[in-house]
Design a protein that fits this description.
By secondary structure, this protein is mostly helical. 77% of the residues lie in helices and 0% in strands. The longest helix has 26 residues. This is TMM33 protein.
Length: 219
């Protein structure tokens, strides 16, 4: 009854579980390397479906206008819809599947807990314990996802630059922006040490300045 009353959320829950399943079989190719490549595409297609449903949920009234497009580009679901479409026809890149896998896992876990609560407050204690442990590590998982988003960029600079600027300016998920700041603080701390060569210090400062100029303005 709970699932039927929340059809869109249930559809996203199922697609996220399928994404986790396909991603896991790509990362751990138990059925062979050839099958792993097809699971890579299935995971990204399932994630694209989830992202499209979530975007529709966030912006239900579609308009063919520049204002609507600008608003859509602020949504995390739009970012990962574009992300999935970028990588779905490319050669499988293992690093690119981890954000898809982990985001799907986190969101699926959250909704699974709601399903269990609707069924009974004490149902399946072992599964509840696993979900609680996953939720306790949510911040670390989100930081790991942000690391993947950042370090994936050198491999696919032109495709991912726009995606990374969207993730940096995300209103709902600040972890990519936060990690950029933390990395800058670490680098600046290291280059201020007396043992750091002058040319390395200058090179790092130039790099920081260049990346800072590329960073979009966050509202």
């Amino acid at each position: 009854q709970f699932l039927m009353a929340n059809k869109l959320d249930t559809a996203m829950w199922i697609s996220r579980l399928f994404t986790v399943y396909c991603s896991a079989l790509f990362v751990l190719p138990l059925l062979g390397l050839h099958e792993a490549a097809s699971f890579y595409q299935r995971a990204l297609l399932a994630n694209a479906l989830t992202s499209a449903l979530r975007l529709h949920q966030r912006l239900p009234h579609f308009q063919l206008s520049r204002a609507f497009l600008a608003q859509a580009l602020l949504e995390d679901s739009c970012h990962y819809l574009l992300y999935s479409l970028i990588f779905v026809n490319s050669y499988p890149v293992t690093m690119s599947i981890f954000p898809v896998l982990l985001f799907s896992l986190l969101h699926a876990a959250t909704y699974t807990k709601k399903v269990l609560d609707a069924r009974s407050s004490n149902s399946l204690p072992f599964l509840r314990n696993l979900l609680e442990k996953l939720n306790a590590n949510q911040q670390n998982i989100l930081k790991f996802i942000a690391c993947n988003e950042i370090f994936l960029m050198p491999a696919t600079v032109f495709m991912l630059f726009r995606f990374l600027t969207l993730r940096y300016s995300s209103r709902r998920n600040p972890y990519c922006r936060t990690l950029f700041t933390e990395l800058r603080i670490v680098v600046e701390h290291l280059i201020t040490k007396p043992s750091c060569p002058v040319f390395v210090r200058r090179l790092c400062l130039s790099g920081i300045s260049f990346i800072s100029r590329l960073a979009p303005t966050v509202a």
